[in-house]
Amino acid sequence: MGRIENVTTGALLADQVKVARSFPARVIGLLARRRFESGEALVFPGCRSIHTVGMRFPIDVVFVSREWRVVAVRSSVPPGRLAVSAWHARATIELPSGTTKRVTVRVGDQLRFSERS
User: Fold this and answer.
1) Average pLDDT value for the chain
2) Of the candidate ranges 5-14, 21-30, 84-93, 106-115, the one whose mean pLDDT is the lowest
3) Distance CA 77, CA 69 (A)
4) How many C-beta atoms surround the C-beta of residue 71 within 10 A?
5) Can you give 28-73 as a three-state secondary structure string?
6) Going by C-beta distance under 8 Å and a sequence separation of 6 or more, which residues neighbour residue 117?
7) Mean of pLDDT values over 51-59
8) Is 25 helix (H, G, I), strand (E, B) or coil?
């Protein structure tokens, strides 16, 4: 678990962050979930695109650089879609739909991910 903050604005994006490191975690992602609660996030390291095929709800997607600077934001991506970022994205963050508008996440914002042991 961990947390993601927007250093640029001081806003907290999520405080229940999981990182999909294993192959099964990356494949399953949010597919087995019935809902995605405020404060939750799923991070895919080394990922430049995601799909929502088979999902039950829309999500917000934030693509970040190696330094965790926002390079692309896709709000309210509905089920059955593909979300692609800029070529220099190095990780993808999935958030509950509406998060990026509620806490104002924009291209160029600096995020910070802290992982708890």
Assistant:
1) 90
2) 21-30
3) 21
4) 18
5) HCCCCCCCCCCCEEEEEECCCEEECCCCCCCEEEEEECCCCEEEEE
6) none
7) 90
8) helix
Q: C-alpha distances in angstroms, 31 versus 15, 38, 97?
A: 21, 17, 15
User: How far is Cα 116 from Cα 27, in angstroms, rounded to an integer?
Assistant: 23
Q: What is the pTM of this model?
A: 0.91
Q: What are phi and psi of 72, to 5 degrees?
A: -165, 150
Per the listing, tokens 């979300």 go with 83
Helix, strand, or coil (residue 24): helix
Nearby residues of 116 by Cβ (< 8 Å), 6 or more positions away: 1, 2, 3
Residues 25-54: pLDDT tens digits? 777 777 677 788 999 999 999 988 888 888
Which of 70, 64, 110 has the alpha carbon at shortest distance from 89?
64
